[in-house]
């Protein structure tokens, strides 16, 4: 309807111009075919542009709307949807409005140009015979082409895809897709964005010092110097031993997606190293019968019954106690072979030896000694650096670095200046022999995310090491035996710890135990560097420093350094620019098509008649053609008649006006 209205408006302004009474070319000399020899000069090009000014203006509007659309999309591409300031009007609504303006302002001048194109089509080209006119039915095809897709498709069929008229028809056809294409331009992508959750609420537990122990009047091998382990640490040890898996500390992450910088903390390390005990066969007889003696490199003896049934003994020992078979009550000391670093104050070192069942060799009439396996394990305080993150509610923590090298400071009131008690089973007293008051570590600042240029200490009180080590030495002593007796399996063991070591695997138990103790240290110990004992001094690289200066609280400075960041998934605008190709192409081709129509009309002197009823005011139909349609009242009857008539748009020989003439069999050559 908009195209028809525009064409009719053009008719109002041009039909009289084309009328012989007002046209400057009406009285101009005409050629033998009735056309004016000065058609081109009869209408100034500036006047022609004035006639098409509204159509040209609409082309400019479509270009401006397209530029506006591109600007709007560019400004919001990659921006968060929550930042849209349009209120109830969404960005999609703005795009839809601009797309409507683009199509409406684009289709009107194109439709007008197609309507004008039918007059160019009916004008026989110069040098051709008049009989080569166009089918009268083409007039209707052009009319329908200016109104929709069906007519435009027919226009392409009759004019050929290479004709300029087909360009206008293609614009009409593809303009229908402007709306759907522009709706596909704007998409949504989801990104992880840091939320406004305060960083202080995302601090992970960490510790820089541990000094947990309980004063006790008991002085024994395992309760050295009257210091015993704290109940919460003992509970953590038991939990680590009897749990199939010890989990990392749960990080508080309200959004379900959080990251933290590298977190450094005091913790507990544990490790096992395999070794092959050189066990030799020996036999002796005592009052109880035959016994098999296995000799280790150190010469210690492990006794087992002389049986050919399934027999496995798991012997556990510690660095200060002994491994033994309780049924015989024989103690044996071990010497660490793998964990012997003098700079590490080990909490405990123990060895496990697995001895398979003995086998009787009939050929030699003697017992066969199957190969045995052994593991040496240790636990010690260490500094650890963690990488922690939570993704979609699933937490992952990785230990990126570990520092275990210690230095020690001594309380100067002890004259021995650092003589460590080698035999904790003997109560020698604090005042008689000196011992370290603190063990501390100074790890690499960059790896452990420590303040650059300022030494940060991780420290452990000597009393805590002795208290925890005493209990661990007692725990990891015993055995687990599997013996077939009287057709049934009996599994004697010295403690539930030995049973856990047998079923869970020694290395697994040690790893679980180390993590459980680490979790307890991180959640119970303060984030201060060292204790505040005024008399305590330390030596760092040969320089004595008062350790009390390093004991200030770090809560303020650590809040920013170790604070985590919570992330939420938010929608962002994403512009898919490829979908702009069609609208841009149509907007650029539309003015080209309109301008070409204007120039072609000016060059050929074709009148600007438009369409509609007002066409009859500026262009007549030859009487012969009218007579053929006399009495025809149905379109399906008129259409075949029109298809068989060849016509041409020419100047009338009578009055110089424009006339549609029947040129069937006309042998004239158009000049």
From TrEMBL:
<keyword id="KW-0472">Membrane</keyword>
<keyword id="KW-0812">Transmembrane</keyword>
<feature type="transmembrane region" description="Helical">
    <location>
        <begin position="164"/>
        <end position="182"/>
    </location>
</feature>
<feature type="transmembrane region" description="Helical">
    <location>
        <begin position="95"/>
        <end position="115"/>
    </location>
</feature>
<feature type="transmembrane region" description="Helical">
    <location>
        <begin position="577"/>
        <end position="599"/>
    </location>
</feature>
<protein>
    <submittedName>
        <fullName>Uncharacterized protein</fullName>
    </submittedName>
</protein>
<feature type="region of interest" description="Disordered">
    <location>
        <begin position="18"/>
        <end position="40"/>
    </location>
</feature>
<dbReference type="Pfam" id="PF11374">
    <property type="entry name" value="DUF3176"/>
</dbReference>
<dbReference type="InterPro" id="IPR021514">
    <property type="entry name" value="DUF3176"/>
</dbReference>
<keyword id="KW-1133">Transmembrane helix</keyword>
<feature type="transmembrane region" description="Helical">
    <location>
        <begin position="54"/>
        <end position="75"/>
    </location>
</feature>
<feature type="compositionally biased region" description="Low complexity">
    <location>
        <begin position="30"/>
        <end position="40"/>
    </location>
</feature>
